[in-house]
């Protein structure tokens, strides 16, 4: 027990033998490794990276899953063309089946539970955090090798709940090549360190555009400083993802599983080593 402990475990990052706040998987469920995808701010493509990584691991022969912890802003279902699908209950059991994509990726998202996918989720933090825990404990996850948790941006209730309640094996921080990148990365790094969660590395999204005629890299947002930032935190840069028209087209069409993103090869290898 930590010195001067006030027994308020919900806001504490200490690892005490006297408590275990982790939510339990439902009997029969199995998840081998859990990877959180985080960012210090929104709009950097965190959900896109989550989906691409799940697809990458699935194509390499592993069973992958996505737990969409972005309860108030879920976008995962649309990327897989499942916006109109609703989750089904397990017969005679108080549990939900994950929604399964065409290639076999298991998903759970708030949009699968809403009557209308465009309905807003107007909940306070504790209720949202409770929903995330239920996505872990009340869904029948089927022998998952790698689960990717798409977290909302920032360092609020949901990331704290995920770090404390799920057996997170590591996180990947997503950023973009803009002036605020150091602040974005530093917030996520500090939270992970406070919670004792390993950081696998950084992925820079929207890094550049490739000229369709000569393959020259055009840095739309200016030259990135991600390498220096990663070095200052002693972290590897796992990928620098370009902006490609085919990526946007596939996501908009709900066909993200058709994409091949070779830039994620190093990230996939790091995940395999967990």
For the structure shown, list the relevant keywords.
single chain, 274 residues, alpha/beta, 8-stranded mixed beta sheet, two-stranded antiparallel ribbon
Helix percentage range: 25-40%
How many strands, which pairing sense, and closed or not: the largest β-sheet? 8 strands, mixed
The coarse overall form would be globular
Quickly count the helices: 8
Low-confidence stretches: none
The secondary-structure element order is EHEHEEHEHEHEEEHEHH
DSSP E strands, number: 10
Q: Write down the Rg.
A: 19 Å
CATH homologous superfamily assignment:
P-loop containing nucleotide triphosphate hydrolases
Give the total of domains: 1
Mean pLDDT: 89
- For the biggest β-sheet, the strand order reads 3-4-2-5-1-6-7-10
What is the CATH topology descriptor? Rossmann fold
CATH class: Alpha Beta
Give the terminus-to-terminus CA distance. 29 Å
Would you mind describing this structure in some detail?
The protein is of the alpha/beta class and 274 residues long. The protein has a single domain (23-268), classed as P-loop containing nucleotide triphosphate hydrolases (Rossmann fold), CATH 3.40.50. It is 28% helix and 16% strand. The strands form 2 sheets. Strands 3-4-2-5-1-6-7-10 form an 8-stranded mixed beta sheet, with helices on both faces. Strands 8-9 form a two-stranded antiparallel ribbon. The mean pLDDT is 89.
Summarize the structure.
This protein is α/β, with parallel strands linked by helices and 274 residues long. The chain has 8 helices and 10 strands.
């Amino acid at each position: 027990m930590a010195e001067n402990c006030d027994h308020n475990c919900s806001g504490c990052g200490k690892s005490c033998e006297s408590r275990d706040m982790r939510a339990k998987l439902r009997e029969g469920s199995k998840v081998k490794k859990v990877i959180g995808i985080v960012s210090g701010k929104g709009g950097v493509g965190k959900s896109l990276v989550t989906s691409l990584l799940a697809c990458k691991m699935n194509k390499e022969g592993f069973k992958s899953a996505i737990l969409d912890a972005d309860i108030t802003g879920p976008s995962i279902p649309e990327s897989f063309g499942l916006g109109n699908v609703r989750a089904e209950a397990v017969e005679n059991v108080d549990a939900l089946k994950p929604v399964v994509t065409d290639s076999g990726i298991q998903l759970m998202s708030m949009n699968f539970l809403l009557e209308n996918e465009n309905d807003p989720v107007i909940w306070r933090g504790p209720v949202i955090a409770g929903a995330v825990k239920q996505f872990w404990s009340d869904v029948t996850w089927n022998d998952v090798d790698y689960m990717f948790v798409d977290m909302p941006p920032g360092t609020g209730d949901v990331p704290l709940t995920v770090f404390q309640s799920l057996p997170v094996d590591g996180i990947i921080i997503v950023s973009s090549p803009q002036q605020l990148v150091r602040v974005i990365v530093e917030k996520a790094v500090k939270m992970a360190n406070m919670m004792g969660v390993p950081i696998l590395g950084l992925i820079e999204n929207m890094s550049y555009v490739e000229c369709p005629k000569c393959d020259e890299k055009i840095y739309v947002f200016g030259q990135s400083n991600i390498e220096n930032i990663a070095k200052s935190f002693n972290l590897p840069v796992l990928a620098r993802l370009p902006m490609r028209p085919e990526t946007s087209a596939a996501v908009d069409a709900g066909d993200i599983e058709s994409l091949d993103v070779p830039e994620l090869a190093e990230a996939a290898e790091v995940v395999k080593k967990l």
